[in-house]
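Thread: "does anyone have the structure for this chain?"

Original post by V.I.:
We have the sequence but no experimental structure in hand. Need at least a predicted one for the grant figures.
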Amino acid sequence: MENDYKEIDAVLEKMQEVLAAMREQDPDFYAKYPMQLITEAEEQAIQVVTEQWRLPNEYVYFLMHYVPEMVSWGTDEYINLDIYGAKDLQQGQLGYNFNPVTNEVITEWPNDYLVIASDEGDPYCIDLSRGDTVIYTAEHGTGTWDFSIAYDNLVEFLHSVLRPREYDSEWESTDEEYEYYNVFITGAGSDKIKTLLFIKKTFSCDYSQAKAYLEEVPLLVFKGISQVAAKIEDELKSIGADYEMRKISFGEFISQSAKK
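Reply from O.Q.:
Generated one for you, tokens below.
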């Protein structure tokens, strides 16, 4: 079974890297309020949810390997996204399909929708009648549930929590693995004026500040996915600037982004 879900293994590994980088940024806080992805769920927790719901195999595999402890994901797309593990999946349904205050079933909720995550009340669900992991979402508090497809599958949804804040609009596809680069200007090159104008545009600064930046080479002008880094490289080539590209790990990329 495990060999069939390499994509989930890969995204869980990246989630671990993100958490490691976050813990490194504030070790005292996370020592007091630990957050981690434990490697295996308890067998009893898996048994409880698989007996209660007929879950897609891919999602069961995910639950077996995603055991969150105090983990909430915040990006440009999410305010405070909680992804439920096997232990808290049942609790995650409360307020959607069941009202714990009145002890009544909520009839407006679609029978086959299982809430697998929630972002400040907005649910992310799979439709158990389909047998796949298409992810649906709707805005809460509107009086009715108007669901639409948010992601085509579970892996795509999981990748969405790894997108850094202010990610480039061209990073929309999650069907491929990404490589990450730092791009530095290392010298004025053959046309100092063009290089200064590039720096001025990149940092939204005036000409005198651009000159000061150029005196501090190597100057980091971009960090991110290879597709965008390649375009930056083409632009630096076209203006004749001296530059260097350095490949970095995903963990280094996240850690650098957290320090902004």
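V.I.: this helps a lot. The two ends are 40 Å apart (CA to CA).
O.Q.: and Residues 6-25 form the longest helix (20 residues).
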